[in-house]
Amino acid sequence: NITTKFTQGLPKAELHLHIEGTLEPALKLKLAQRNHVDIGQTTIAEVQKTYEYHDLASFLAVYYPAMNVLQTEEDFYDLAMAYLHRAAANNVRHAEIFFDPQAHTSRGIDFATVINGLYQATVDARALNIDAHLIMCFLRDFSKESARKTLAEALQYKDKIIGIGLDSDEHNNPPLKFARQFEDAAAAGLHLTTHCDIDQKDSIEHIRQALEIMGVERLDHGTNIVEDPDLVAFAAKNHIGLTSCPLSNTFVTPEMKGKEVIELLNKNVPVSIHSDDPAYFGGYISDNYYALAQQFNLTVEQIVQLARNSFATAWISPEQKQLYF
Ligand code: ADE
Ligand code: ZN
pTM of the prediction? Predict the structure, then answer.
């Protein structure tokens, strides 16, 4: 029988984690007080009560306003360090962490404030035995022009970023909208991934664009791919990592997409398990492994394979992969 001790102790790479999604109610309140931001609540329980949603759009409507409490470099550092301590307790050995600069620059915070605070935390993560990196995401519901400007700023900090991604509201915002930015980022040596959220309108077409036209190396969520055998074969052949987030899925649809994960394992697609926005979706990475294992009766071998896949599809050298498994 799978235990929480087992899922916690298993060495893991976290590849799908939004740093803004790790803002726990207690930290939100602390930062609100520190920065004199009126968030409308004065106790942790009151903040917790506002963390309520039933689909992607209603989640994002809570998620973005919460970020107002993040103002200074120190705030971004504290947010990331709080996550990294949790990650260390979950035996996360390697982390590739998403951040959304436009969610901050659009409310008047400098790009430098965001990246410098987050980056310092990735440096200090070494003392926690975590190899941590940053992936910059474009908000896909913002304009192409905004993405262009954001990439130009990001390229000034190229050494502090390992890759780029695409998140936020997918509805009518296909990957191809950002083809030019992805091309430019790849030319600058950055890795590529994109969200293809579960059960979206045009899910399969978005997955196809991302894989066949834009050449992304991973898909975040992306489990709707099982509807298209040719794309599944493409993902297996090209070793495309799919980063599935079981607890997050249950907020968007009634289920964790465990059947899809098992099918992908059986078809040799390197799917792996992550936590998405753990402060909002009720659990960190080990909780996600545990919940999926319980609900779908996963074997020890399947769980170990999921963890192996997380390192296999991480953006690290073959030599470094050997260190973990
Ligand atoms: N930003 C943070 N979490 C997200 C998710 N699950 N989907 C899209 N954008 C996000
Ligand atoms: Zn996500």
Answer: 0.98
